[in-house]
């Protein structure tokens, strides 16, 4: 087939002088003849100037010839991969291999980092919710501060005869988000009475214990209030619910002439004298008003405003106790900078639950409980 299209080359004629011509047999190899018949079939033994190719003069030649361009090259000079035997030699002449980058700088960095990383990993686990220091903290010579220790004082379980559950839960959520370590307390005393929450009426001939009922909210992890000391905690928070006015004090019965549970009074005075913050919400601010003379607190607005503030009369009782009442919205918190007492209305207002949650969050954030 090839002979029909491209006749085999015959003897070549060349000039030997004026008027003379001589014929010599073509002694060049079959490979050169094939290259003359098909210029694209030039092998690696006939490289073009560096950076050029037959098909695109002047353009950078990045690869060797395609396998199909090797037609006419003797089989004994072609490797098993379809490349000319001189391919490796051509590659060495046209490609410059760079040595791998030195790893000495990285080795030096690792040597400097190793002692600090080892010190960080050797630290023992910290108690509670405190997070372990990261290797980055060790490298910078710092470690996370331990979270504040907060005492949460409950008064039972249930809005009408104990702690308001939603308020206690909101306080725990915001304290957890702030990284606090919380310990829950309640006095080991009998409740004033037990309310049937389906009817809103006292359950006759039934008695319950404040500490036992509070353990329901604390998931069993409850401590007697008699063991609470301001020396072991950074702040104290009292959620509301009628338990604060019935079990922690007699405010629900005696109003401005009320008495406060002896351990509650002791705890409030200890934290106040130590300059440690106290948070109270809902009806619980009456405890601070009774124990800490001249304190500033809020239970919301001083007018019922069509039933939105059904317990607005509490503000007048607080004033009668010698405290100062400050009007605040349900999502706000009031801070008594002098006495370090933070209060918010919570369920003293008839409103949506998320507003109560936001107000308690404002209270928790304004309680300056971070350790120095």
From TrEMBL:
Entry's Gene Ontology cellular component terms: mitochondrion
Region of interest called Disordered, as start-end residue ranges on this chain: 1-77
Superkingdom, taxonomy of origin: Eukaryota
Comp. bias regions, Basic and acidic residues: 21-34
Compartment(s): Mitochondrion
UniProt keywords, alphabetically: Mitochondrion, Transit peptide
Annotated protein name in UniProt: Glutamine amidotransferase class 1 domain containing 3
Organism (species): Equus asinus
Gene name as annotated: GATD3
